[in-house]
C-alpha cells in the first residue's frame, strides 16, 4: 500500500483539513507551509482529485476532500490507537534473558521483590548459556557472563564471578576434615577439567594437581555441580555468591578464604538505544540496589 499511497501525505492532508490552513498544519507537524503544500499536491496527483480549494488566507475542502476526510481521520485514529496499545503492552512486560545458574540461584529467589516494587510490570524469564543478539532475539535485558565489553550495549556489573572449592560438611568429615588445599585431591573432584580448578590450585601453591585422573565431565551449569557437592559426591568449584543460602543451611561450606577471578563477571546488558525505557530503568535500578556488595 505504501508504494501506491503516500501515507505521510494523508497525515498532512488530515491536519490541513482540520485547521483549514497549510500554515497551521505545518506548525503542528513541524513542517514548512511549502512542505505541507507539496505533500497535499502529491496526494492530489496520486488520487487524481483536487482535495482543497485554495482561497485567500485559507483552504477549503473540495467535494472529494470532504468525502475523503472522515475515512482518513478514522484510519489515522485506529493506527494511533493500535500503536498506543502495543506500546502499553510492551511497557507492561519485561523479558529477561539470563544464564541458567544466575536465574536459578539468584533471580528466582529475588524477583518477587521486584514484582512487589513494580506490580504493573509482568516478568518473562528465559534462560540459556547462549549470548543472545538483541537485534534478532526477543529480550529487553540480559544477564551475561563475560567482560562487559559488548559493542552497542549498556553494561552494568551485577556480580563478581569469583570461584573457590565448596563441599558438604559430611564429605569433609569423611577424610577427617579439609585442612590444606592438597586435602581436596583426596576427594572426588566435580568437573575436574574446568579451567577454574587449575587456576585455583595454582593460586593455592599446587602447580600440578593431576586433574587428568578424574573423569572429564562437563555438566553445563554450576547449579548441577553444586547439587553433586550437596549430595556429598564430590568437591565443586563454585561462585560463593550464588550459594549463600546453601551455606547458611549447612549444606555447603567454603574451606578456604582464597577465591580467584578470571576477569569475567556477571553483567546486566541491554541496547544503549533502549536505556531510557522505563521498565528497563526500573529493573536496572532495582538489581543494582539489590546487589551492591556483589558488584
Automatic annotation (TrEMBL):
InterPro entries: LysR-type_TF_proteobact-type (IPR058163), LysR_HTH_N (IPR000847), LysR_subst-bd (IPR005119), WH-like_DNA-bd_sf (IPR036388), WH_DNA-bd_sf (IPR036390). It holds the Pfam family HTH_1. Gene3D superfamilies: Periplasmic binding protein-like II (3.40.190.10), Winged helix-like DNA-binding domain superfamily/Winged helix DNA-binding domain (1.10.10.10). The keyword Transcription regulation applies. GO terms for molecular function: DNA-binding transcription factor activity; sequence-specific DNA binding. It comes from the Bacteria. CDD domains: PBP2_GcdR_TrpI_HvrB_AmpR_like (cd08432). Residues 5-62 form the HTH lysR-type domain. Keywords: DNA-binding, Transcription, Transcription regulation. GO terms for biological process: DNA-templated transcription. The keyword DNA-binding applies. Belongs to the LysR transcriptional regulatory family. This is LysR family glycine cleavage system transcriptional activator. It comes from Shinella fusca.
Amino acid at each position: 500500500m505504501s508504494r501506491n499511497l503516500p501515507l505521510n501525505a494523508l497525515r498532512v492532508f488530515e491536519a490541513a483539513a482540520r485547521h483549514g490552513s497549510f500554515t497551521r498544519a505545518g506548525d503542528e507537524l513541524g513542517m514548512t507551509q511549502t512542505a505541507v503544500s507539496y505533500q497535499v499536491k502529491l496526494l492530489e496527483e496520486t488520487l487524481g482529485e483536487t482535495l482543497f480549494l485554495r482561497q485567500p488566507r485559507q483552504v477549503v475542502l473540495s467535494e472529494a476532500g470532504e468525502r475523503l476526510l472522515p475515512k482518513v481521520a478514522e484510519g489515522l485514529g485506529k493506527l494511533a490507537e493500535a500503536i498506543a496499545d502495543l506500546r502499553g503492552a510492551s511497557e507492561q512486560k519485561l523479558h529477561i534473558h539470563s544464564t541458567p545458574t544466575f536465574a536459578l540461584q539468584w533471580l528466582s529467589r529475588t524477583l518477587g521483590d521486584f514484582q512487589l516494587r513494580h506490580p504493573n510490570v509482568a516478568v518473562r524469564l528465559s534462560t540459556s548459556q547462549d549470548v543472545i543478539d538483541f537485534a534478532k532475539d526477543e529480550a529487553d535485558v540480559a544477564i551475561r557472563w563475560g567482560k562487559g565489553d559488548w559493542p552497542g550495549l549498556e553494561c552494568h556489573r551485577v556480580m563478581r564471578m569469583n570461584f573457590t572449592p565448596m563441599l558438604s560438611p559430611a564429605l569433609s568429615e569423611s577424610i577427617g576434615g579439609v585442612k590444606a588445599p592438597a586435602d581436596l585431591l583426596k576427594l572426588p573432584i566435580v568437573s575436574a577439567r574446568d579451567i577454574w580448578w587449575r587456576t585455583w590450585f595454582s593460586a593455592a601453591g599446587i602447580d600440578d594437581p593431576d586433574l587428568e585422573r578424574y573423569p572429564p565431565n562437563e555438566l553445563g551449569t554450576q547449579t548441577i555441580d553444586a547439587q553433586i557437592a550437596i549430595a556429598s559426591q564430590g568437591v565443586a568449584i563454585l561462585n560463593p555468591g550464588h550459594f549463600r543460602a546453601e551455606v547458611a543451611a549447612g549444606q555447603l561450606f567454603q574451606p578456604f578464604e582464597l577465591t580467584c577471578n578470571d576477569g569475567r563477571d556477571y553483567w546486566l546488558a541491554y541496547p544503549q538505544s533502549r536505556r531510557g525505557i522505563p521498565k528497563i530503568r526500573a529493573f536496572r535500578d532495582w538489581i543494582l540496589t539489590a546487589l551492591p556488595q556483589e558488584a
